[in-house]
């Protein structure tokens, strides 16, 4: 097909007019605070910036940990049957759906239980979520007895001082729920085996010792048990079974954070009796195959010795190591993309 000079000129002119019209349209949209797809993508995002944006979207969901304790519960064991042995059932309610998170351990002979069990949940900040907790007295021979129940909004707990909220139970007593944020990286499990020697005797026969590992949420003003061992009957030189403890639950993965190790004499009727305690860190325990003295609160004399027979961490996730020049690379990529886009517009 032969195209005359006049036809070629007309086509060129038509093309020029289309380009001018599109440019005018862009300017008009930009002046009205709008952006066309071409303007929006005139400076493409670098791979590093795209990853950052993706990570921001992921952060809308947080991993949280729920722990529970109660005070002044009503003793429902019955006349002549000692003190209640409470445990708690926990259910997550979201968008009209119920998900049973699980059940705590049973705390024997206590109307002031602090459960060491914790429950992990994914919290979407824009979504209404609540937990329902029912407290029950375990009855070995017969039916378990309800001790009270309460519901907590996740947002209300997070908005409360110290991220802890208490509610009165209709049957009597207070139930307290605490929410803490879980580190993004798993710090693994602490395998710990302890042995005691010449512990304090507070019984007619011999003490029945157990130990607790505790953490603090308020800088050491109060301590919350994260792990409670079995008790060893009539033995002042107990060799406890190896414990497995979530390191994030114990110290948020900070191996230098202070923790508390407390020793108690198990009581079949009433609260356990303290035998002494000391403060340490996970790092200190791992590095110490030596002994630790136990001191009772207001008594200066040491009561026995604790030996660390085994202490190691397994299953910890490695921290993501980013190259130090990542920010510089991102800036260079974006500057180059902007320069290229400017050159294309000028052409």
Automatic annotation (TrEMBL):
Residues 46-168, 173-295 form the C2 domain. GO terms for cellular component: plasma membrane. Residues 48-59 have a biased composition (Basic residues). GO terms for biological process: cellular response to calcium ion. InterPro entries: C2_dom, C2_domain_sf, C2B_Copine, Copine. It holds the Pfam family C2. Residues 336-347 have a biased composition (Basic and acidic residues). One of its GO terms (molecular function) is calcium-dependent phospholipid binding. Residues 29-59, 319-347 are annotated as: Disordered. Residues 326-335 have a biased composition (Acidic residues). Gene3D superfamilies: C2 domain. It comes from the Eukaryota. PANTHER family: C2 DOMAIN-CONTAINING PROTEIN (PTHR10857:SF106), COPINE (PTHR10857). This is C2 domain-containing protein. It comes from Skeletonema marinoi.
